[in-house]
Amino acid sequence: MGSVSTAHLELERVALDSGERVDRDEPGRESVVVILSGRCSVVVGTDVHELSRESVFAEKASAVYVPAGRTFSIEASTSAEIVVCCGEAAVSGEPMRIDGESVACRSVGRAAYQRRVCDIVGLDVPAQHLVLGETYNEPGKWSSFPPHKHDEDRLPVEAAMEEIYLFKVDPVEGFGLQRLYSPKDGYDRAVVLRDNAMVTIPEGYHPVGAAPGCSLYYLWVLWGERRELAPFDDPGFESVKARLAAEE
Questions:
Q1: Domains along the chain?
Q2: Model confidence pLDDT, tens digit, residues 5-56
Q3: Rg, the chain, Cα only
Q4: Residue 248, pLDDT score
Q5: What is the DSSP string of 105-128?
Q6: Could you say which DSSP state residue 239 is in?
Q7: Which among 68, 197, 220, 228 is most buried, taking Cβ atoms within 10 Å?
Q8: What pairs with residue 83 in β-bridges?
Q9: What is the per-residue pLDDT across 184-208, written as a single tens digit (0 to 9) for each?
Q10: pTM of the entire structure?
Q11: What is the DSSP code string of 157-174?
């Protein structure tokens, strides 16, 4: 269990035993409840949404979107692991269940940076500020590559979006690595990604790599005032991008 946050966004990992319940009241934040494993029910008013999942590596996600100003509860019917993502929002909208069948997955990149991306709360879901999905790196492969950022509002080139990642690793003894850097702000660091690691990305570039023999998963959630996806690739990688394009 635990939570991390940025200026407008919070991600909380919740582990419940069978029969345990948590109640939430978010008057100024919209929320997305995502099941990672087990079975639980999400109750919003008189609506009851049953969520289940063997694991993030075995099944696609199901989730419930809860607009700001609505109380909700989560009750586990087995041991369950759940993620609750909350972002600042005005009171508006209706709750929405997102079934695994409606989660669109696609292959992105190629060769050593090919990954599978699944959109859970895409731009087709009527949220106010949140966008949420999951990415899968096969062993030894990279994602969020070529490195990109989304910390400035300068459309159509870039839209500012805060972001948080939650990682899972298979096997759990494995690991990945993430580089977090910003030439503008003068920082450059590497983070070891263990199972259940949570990383905040308020700014800068943030590529991710999986160690050989280790499958890497991460849930990503973004918050933006404009709710537009316009990532900006690192200009320092133009020659790398040209070389990759030539190999296609």
A1: 2-247 (2.60.120.10)
A2: 999 999 999 999 999 999 999 999 999 999 999 999 999 999 999 999 999 9
A3: 18
A4: 63
A5: EEEES-GGG-EEEEEEE-TTS--S
A6: H
A7: 220
A8: 13, 34
A9: 889 999 999 999 999 999 999 999 9
A10: 0.95
A11: TB---EEEEEEEEESTT-
Q: Tell me the sheet residues that pair with 44.
A: 47, 72
Q: Phi and psi (nearest 5°) for 224?
A: -140, 145
Residues 203, 200: Cα–Cα separation, whole Å: 9
Q: What angle do CA 107, 136, 193 make, to 5 degrees?
A: 145
Q: How would you classify residue 203: left for phi > 0, otherwise alpha for psi between -120 and 50, otherwise beta?
A: beta
Task: Please identify which residue in the block is written with the tokens 């320092």.
Answer: 236
Name the residue with tokens 């800068």: 204
Question: What tokens were used for 227?
Answer: 């709710």
3-state secondary structure of 6: coil
Q: Count of CB atoms within 10 A of residue 191's CB?
A: 16
Within 8 A by CB and 6+ apart from 35, the residues are: 51, 52, 53, 61, 62, 63, 80, 81, 82
The residue assigned the tokens 């940025």 is: 6
Calpha distance 129→55 (Å, rounded): 27
